[in-house]
Amino acid sequence: MIVRSLQEIIGTERDVQGPGWNSRRLVLARERIGFSVNDTVVDAGAELEMWYANHIEAVYVIEGQGEVVDDETGETHRLEPGVMYLVDAHQRHTLRAHTRFRAVCVFNPPLTGREVHDENGAFPLLTEEDR
Question: Residue 62 needs a FRET pair 20 to 30 A away by CA distance; which of 6, 39, 78, 114 works?
Fold first, then answer.
Protein backbone atom coordinates (compact mmCIF):
# COMPACT_ATOMS: atom_id res chain seq x y z
CA MET A 1 0.00 0.00 0.00
CA ILE A 2 1.22 3.48 -0.83
CA VAL A 3 0.09 6.41 1.31
CA ARG A 4 1.46 9.81 0.39
CA SER A 5 0.40 13.36 1.19
CA LEU A 6 0.69 16.42 -1.00
CA GLN A 7 2.53 18.20 1.83
CA GLU A 8 5.37 15.66 1.79
CA ILE A 9 5.83 16.13 -1.98
CA ILE A 10 5.96 19.93 -2.11
CA GLY A 11 9.55 21.12 -2.47
CA THR A 12 10.97 17.69 -3.40
CA GLU A 13 12.04 16.24 -6.77
CA ARG A 14 8.39 15.18 -7.25
CA ASP A 15 7.38 18.88 -7.30
CA VAL A 16 8.05 19.82 -10.94
CA GLN A 17 7.63 23.41 -12.17
CA GLY A 18 7.22 24.73 -15.68
CA PRO A 19 6.23 28.07 -17.17
CA GLY A 20 2.71 28.73 -15.88
CA TRP A 21 2.25 25.36 -14.16
CA ASN A 22 3.35 23.24 -11.24
CA SER A 23 2.90 19.46 -11.11
CA ARG A 24 3.16 17.50 -7.89
CA ARG A 25 3.77 13.88 -8.89
CA LEU A 26 1.93 11.64 -6.42
CA VAL A 27 2.39 8.31 -8.22
CA LEU A 28 5.24 7.67 -10.66
CA ALA A 29 6.52 4.92 -12.94
CA ARG A 30 8.86 3.72 -10.17
CA GLU A 31 5.79 2.49 -8.28
CA ARG A 32 5.24 0.07 -11.20
CA ILE A 33 1.44 0.17 -11.27
CA GLY A 34 0.94 1.17 -14.92
CA PHE A 35 -0.10 4.83 -14.57
CA SER A 36 0.98 8.01 -12.82
CA VAL A 37 -1.04 10.60 -10.88
CA ASN A 38 -0.28 14.32 -10.59
CA ASP A 39 -1.84 17.17 -8.64
CA THR A 40 -1.34 20.03 -11.09
CA VAL A 41 -1.80 23.77 -10.61
CA VAL A 42 -1.97 26.16 -13.57
CA ASP A 43 -1.52 29.89 -13.00
CA ALA A 44 -4.44 32.24 -13.67
CA GLY A 45 -4.12 33.61 -17.19
CA ALA A 46 -1.81 30.84 -18.39
CA GLU A 47 -2.34 29.42 -21.87
CA LEU A 48 -0.58 26.09 -22.39
CA GLU A 49 -0.31 24.51 -25.84
CA MET A 50 0.14 20.78 -25.37
CA TRP A 51 0.47 17.66 -27.44
CA TYR A 52 0.91 14.39 -25.59
CA ALA A 53 2.35 12.48 -28.52
CA ASN A 54 3.54 9.70 -26.20
CA HIS A 55 0.89 9.62 -23.47
CA ILE A 56 -2.82 9.42 -22.79
CA GLU A 57 -3.98 11.87 -20.14
CA ALA A 58 -7.15 12.13 -18.08
CA VAL A 59 -7.71 15.44 -16.27
CA TYR A 60 -10.22 15.90 -13.45
CA VAL A 61 -10.77 19.52 -12.44
CA ILE A 62 -10.98 20.17 -8.69
CA GLU A 63 -10.52 23.95 -8.53
CA GLY A 64 -10.82 27.01 -10.77
CA GLN A 65 -12.23 27.90 -14.15
CA GLY A 66 -10.81 27.49 -17.62
CA GLU A 67 -11.26 25.89 -21.00
CA VAL A 68 -9.62 23.29 -23.15
CA VAL A 69 -9.53 23.64 -26.93
CA ASP A 70 -9.07 20.72 -29.31
CA ASP A 71 -6.61 22.43 -31.66
CA GLU A 72 -7.46 20.03 -34.48
CA THR A 73 -11.21 20.71 -34.50
CA GLY A 74 -11.43 24.10 -32.75
CA GLU A 75 -13.98 22.67 -30.32
CA THR A 76 -13.82 24.43 -26.93
CA HIS A 77 -14.95 22.94 -23.63
CA ARG A 78 -15.58 24.82 -20.40
CA LEU A 79 -13.64 23.52 -17.40
CA GLU A 80 -14.73 23.83 -13.78
CA PRO A 81 -14.71 21.61 -10.70
CA GLY A 82 -16.28 18.23 -11.41
CA VAL A 83 -15.43 18.21 -15.14
CA MET A 84 -13.09 15.61 -16.64
CA TYR A 85 -11.47 15.54 -20.06
CA LEU A 86 -9.43 12.77 -21.64
CA VAL A 87 -6.78 13.29 -24.31
CA ASP A 88 -6.99 9.80 -25.80
CA ALA A 89 -5.97 10.25 -29.43
CA HIS A 90 -2.88 12.39 -28.87
CA GLN A 91 -4.79 15.53 -29.83
CA ARG A 92 -2.98 18.83 -29.82
CA HIS A 93 -4.85 20.96 -27.32
CA THR A 94 -4.66 24.28 -25.52
CA LEU A 95 -5.51 24.74 -21.86
CA ARG A 96 -6.52 28.24 -20.79
CA ALA A 97 -6.78 28.96 -17.08
CA HIS A 98 -9.16 31.85 -16.44
CA THR A 99 -8.47 31.58 -12.69
CA ARG A 100 -5.93 29.59 -10.71
CA PHE A 101 -6.70 26.10 -11.94
CA ARG A 102 -6.07 22.81 -10.18
CA ALA A 103 -6.60 19.29 -11.48
CA VAL A 104 -5.74 15.68 -10.82
CA CYS A 105 -4.06 14.22 -13.92
CA VAL A 106 -3.53 10.54 -14.72
CA PHE A 107 -1.01 9.50 -17.38
CA ASN A 108 -0.45 6.26 -19.25
CA PRO A 109 2.29 5.29 -19.78
CA PRO A 110 3.28 6.56 -16.34
CA LEU A 111 5.55 9.57 -15.90
CA THR A 112 8.94 9.11 -14.26
CA GLY A 113 8.81 12.52 -12.59
CA ARG A 114 11.47 14.17 -14.76
CA GLU A 115 9.25 15.15 -17.69
CA VAL A 116 8.69 18.76 -18.73
CA HIS A 117 6.94 19.97 -21.89
CA ASP A 118 9.20 20.21 -24.93
CA GLU A 119 8.94 22.79 -27.73
CA ASN A 120 5.89 20.90 -29.12
CA GLY A 121 4.09 20.80 -25.77
CA ALA A 122 4.79 17.06 -25.41
CA PHE A 123 6.40 15.04 -22.64
CA PRO A 124 9.21 12.75 -23.80
CA LEU A 125 8.63 9.05 -23.34
CA LEU A 126 10.97 8.23 -20.43
CA THR A 127 11.21 5.01 -18.48
CA GLU A 128 12.69 4.21 -15.09
CA GLU A 129 15.61 2.62 -16.94
CA ASP A 130 16.44 6.12 -18.33
CA ARG A 131 17.27 7.23 -14.77
Answer: 114
Upper half-sphere CA count for residue 53 (Cβ side, 13 Å):
11
The predicted model scores a pTM of 0.86
Q: Is 20 exposed, middle or buried (0-12, 13-18, 19+ CB in 10 A)?
A: middle
CA–CA separation, 35 vs 18, rounded Å? Answer: 21
Pair 120, 71: CB distance under 8 Å: no
Q: Which residues contact 73 (CB under 8 A, 6 or more apart)?
A: none
Locate all alpha helices (DSSP H) within the chain, ordered by sequence. Answer: 6-9
Q: Choose among 110, 109, 107: nearest CA to 29.
A: 110
In 3D, which of 32, 47, 60, 54 has the Cα closest to residue 115?
54
